[in-house]
Design goal:
By secondary structure, this protein is α+β, with helices and mostly antiparallel strands. It folds into 2 domains: 99 residues, no CATH class; 28 residues, no CATH class. 44% of the residues lie in helices and 20% in strands. It has a two-stranded antiparallel ribbon with strand order 1-2. Strands 3-4 form a two-stranded antiparallel ribbon. Helix 1 runs antiparallel to helix 2. The longest helix has 37 residues.
Length: 142
């Protein structure tokens, strides 16, 4: 069978991966101001992507590239939670300090914009591939 939309599978996988990335960023933004005690404070999550290869098409080269997949949702341990003084908060310790995640809303918004742009680019590839496939079918009909 002839694959009229060869980029379709790759772009579809990338769309799904970028959608998951946007969900992770949205979750980080939603929890940016949550509080907790040691061990219970929210930690930033990041998406880890990997290439996916089709063994039938030649393995680890571009000819065998089958797409991208989200392999892991990892916890970012590079930044420790910060302490804020909130003496009347129920989670405050004896000194009135609570832990808050060290999440930068600005950085998360940049990640969201990058994921949105990547999603839009892959959607455009799918649309263009479908137009080319439709044109090919029209040519074959004549």
């Amino acid at each position: 069978m002839i694959d009229l939309i060869p980029a379709g599978k790759i772009s579809a996988g990338a769309l799904q991966a970028e959608r998951m990335r946007m969900d992770i960023v949205a979750n980080n933004l939603a929890n940016a101001h949550s509080v907790g005690q040691e061990g219970s404070v929210y930690q930033r999550k990041v998406a880890i992507f990997a290439e996916q290869y089709n063994d039938e098409l030649g393995g680890d080269d571009l000819n065998g590239l089958d797409g991208v997949e989200l392999t892991e949702i990892a916890t970012d341990t590079s930044r420790a939670p910060t302490q804020e003084y909130m003496p009347f908060h129920p989670e405050a310790d004896a000194d009135g300090m609570v832990l808050v995640p060290n999440i930068s809303p600005l950085e998360e918004m940049v990640d969201m914009i990058a994921a949105t742009r990547a999603y839009e680019a892959n959607l455009s590839i799918l649309r263009d591939s479908r137009k080319m496939a439709d044109s090919t079918i029209d040519i074959l009909k004549s």
